[in-house]
Amino acid sequence: MKVFVASAWPYVETVPHLGNLIGSVLSADVFARYARLKYGKENVVFVSGSDEHGTPIEIEAIKRKINPKNLTDQAHEYVKDLFLNVWKISYDNYSRTESETHKKFVKEFILGIQKYIFVQEETMPYCETDKIFLPDRFIKGTCPYCGFEDARGDQCDKCGRLLSPELLINPRCAICGSKPVFKKTKHWFFDLSKFSDDLRKWLESSKDMPDNVKSVALSWISEGLKPRSLTRDNSWGIPAPFEGAEGKTIYVWFEALLGYISATIEFFEKNGDSKKWEEFWLNDARSYYFIGKDNIPFHAVIFPAMLMASGKGYTLPTVISSTEYLLYEGQKFSKSRRIGIWIDEAPKIMDIDYWRYVLIRLRPEEKDMNFLWKEAIRIVNTELNDDIGNYINRTLTMINRYNSAKIPNFDESIIDENDVKIIKLISETPDMVSSLFEKGKLKAGTEEIIKLAREGNSYLNLKAPWDSIKKNPRDAINTLYLSANLTKSLAILLYPVIPEHSQIIYDLLNLGNIENEMWDNSKKINLQSGHEIKKAIPIFKKLPDTFEKDLPMTLEKIRKELEKTRPSLLR
User: Fold this and answer.
1) Do 397 and 277 share a domain, yes or no?
2) 401 and 512: one domain?
3) 480 and 348 in one domain?
4) pTM of the entire structure?
5) How many domains does the chain have?
6) What are the pLDDT digits (tens) for 220-248?
7) pLDDT higher than threshold 90 for residue 38
8) Which keywords does UniProt give here (predicted)?
9) Has residue 563 been placed in a domain?
10) Residue 173 assigned to a binding site
11) Distance CA 530, CA 405 (A)
12) Same domain, residue pair 315 and 404
């Protein structure tokens, strides 16, 4: 079975923050790493890329009097390096909307669905000073709902209401501030309404799509789908390929969604197999998308409709895993107010694997979650260090001490009910984790993993091999054998979340490269007796008592340093 995994394409105007990371990128990486263990590396493709086009970057470039691509080249490389080399996100291809493969594919795709496209005139604001139409963020004004004086032409940042330029009170050009006039302009529209019935049938018949995604998508359909503009009077973007559309570009909502396909094509082109992408898009593959909840309509309604319109039989999404919002100490992330942690700041505060584990444990799967430092410290010190690290260290230390650092022999003839219970847990936990991961429930899956570690600790305490080694050595040796197998199981189960520390555990067990492991080996009790392990070492370290108190000063220093090195667009 082929498995396609994608994270929503981050807009390259800013450095992603922790909420952006857990909402799509990190969640998708955890699933992709799991899928490779479960289905084999060759059967999984994981892609995303930088969303570079759109009005915010074009406005910034106009103000600076430079080419927008000069801004996005640097920003893309900076964010890409953070994902691949710092956060160890295991993308097979992290592309960009400025990719030639992407631009070529988008033009071909849009021309292939022309029977669902029509032309219509619109009245749009026009700046006579800058000689340009003012779509979306090119225009600002007062929100008619809440009175916020710096609302954009597409949305009010204060009350969150969706807007259109003609609704704004006292509209002004976002570039020069002058009052616009309204002029007619021609645009091309995708008739989304033609797919209402097919979309409804697909969603209602899906056994895998999460209920929250179904609910939002079906609500959209019930309210009545309307045609959506495919073009904009912008210069920054992919030129619209229609006759008579000179000077217009393809609206970013349309072209960025197609990046999932173009990034897959680009990956296989680079690897010399230009047709293999079809196995993940034109066959019976499963596809998993990891997004924030504000992206549900685009992924569960608009994108499937686009795929249906093509008539090529593209694979529709299997699971769209949508998170709620992550807050930071009770507040929304805000760059201007310096509220939150950004992904280039985080690695200078705490180990990346610690971050990965904490964020997955705080993943807002059912409701908005609050990132609290007090809770993050508890998760690291109690779950990672005490529940997991302490259990593994105790197990390996006792094997070093009591069995000359070799995996003990196992005597099935003397097992007791506690042994039977732990054997059952080892064999059943991976399937429970797998079932939850397959539904996009990553946090819930890690609940089962931490339960296994805690049961391992309870098992050791109950069996007390440090005592029984003197009174009943065969029983003590059995306990250590099963504990070693549970350690192996934990390493595999935790690999998608904390890959570097899982490899450390595998190194201590002397078992080679964990990336070559198979998921189902985590439920097998199959370590070879006599296999030599390495000397036990602490795997995790507790965060110090002064960690939270020292954080403001630490963060201030980090931010001053980063202001010197971030690309200008991201400062």
Assistant:
1) no
2) yes
3) no
4) 0.95
5) 2
6) 999 999 999 999 998 999 999 999 999 99
7) yes
8) Aminoacyl-tRNA synthetase, ATP-binding, Cytoplasm, Ligase, Metal-binding, Nucleotide-binding, Protein biosynthesis, Zinc
9) no
10) no
11) 9
12) no
| Boundary residue ending a domain (487, 502, 523) | 523
Report the mean per-residue pLDDT for the chain: 96
Helix (H) or strand (E) holding 4: strand 3-7
What distance in Å separates the CA atoms of residue 479 and residue 482, rounded to the nearest whole number? 5
Q: Decide: 358 and 376 in contact? Cβ < 8 Å.
A: yes
pLDDT at 336: 79
* Residues 109 and 20 occupy one common structural domain: yes
In a domain, 354, yes or no: yes
Q: Do the annotations mark residue 176 as ligand-binding?
A: no
Token pair 């305490």 in the structure block, residue = 461
Question: What pLDDT does 162 receive?
Answer: 80
Q: Report which of 79, 81, 60 is spatially closest to residue 11, judged by C-alpha positions.
A: 79
Pairing assessment for the beta strands 319-323 and 286-292 based on DSSP bridges: parallel
Are residue 309 and residue 427 in the same domain, yes or no? no
CA distance 406 to 403: 6
pLDDT tens digits for range 516-533: 999 999 999 999 999 999
Measured distance CA(82)–CA(165) in Å, rounded = 36
With b for 16 or more beta-carbon neighbours within 10 A and e for fewer, the 429-468 pattern comes to: bbebbbebbbbbbbbbbbebbbebbebbbebbeebebeeb
User: What pLDDT digit, counting tens, does each position of 370-428 carry?
Assistant: 999 999 999 999 999 999 999 999 999 999 999 999 999 999 999 999 999 999 999 99
CA dist 458 and 415 (Å) reads 17
Distant-in-sequence, close-in-space partners of 408: CB < 8 Å, separation ≥ 6:
399, 477, 478, 480, 481, 484, 529
* Residues ≥6 apart with Cβ < 8 Å to 155: 161, 162, 163
Does 335 appear as a known binding residue?
yes
Question: What stretches of 403-539 show up as alpha helix (H) in DSSP?
Answer: 417-438, 442-463, 465-471, 473-494, 499-508
Is the separation of the CB atoms in 82 and 352 below 8 Å? Answer: no
Instruction: Pick the last residue of a domain from 523, 538, 562.
Output: 523
- The burial class, CB within 10 Å (0-12 / 13-18 / 19+), for 325 is middle
**Is there a single domain that holds both residue 508 and residue 400?**
yes
3 state SS of 141 = strand
| Distance between CA atoms of residues 512 and 531, nearest Å | 13
Q: Flag whether 90 is in a domain.
A: yes
Residue 535 lies in a domain: no
Place of tokens 């067990």: 509
Give the span between the Cα atoms of 412 and 401, in whole angstroms.
23
Q: How far is CA 418 from the centre of its chain?
A: 39
CB neighbour list of residue 223: distance below 8 Å, 6 or more residues apart: none
CB 244: neighbour CB atoms within 10 A? 9
DSSP-derived secondary structure for 101-118 = HHHHHHHHHHHTTGGGEE
CA dist 57 to 67, 76, 115, 486, Å?
Answer: 10, 12, 32, 51
Query: Domain range spanning residue 391?
Result: 373-523
Do the beta carbons of residue 77 and residue 566 sit within 8 Å? no
Side-chain half-sphere exposure of 96, counting CA atoms within 13 A: 18
| Structure token digits, residue 493 | 């189960």
Which CATH number fits the domain that encloses residue 274? 3.40.50.620
The CATH number of whichever domain residue 428 belongs to comes to 1.10.730.10
Both 350 and 456 in a single domain? no
Segment (H or E) for 125: strand 117-127
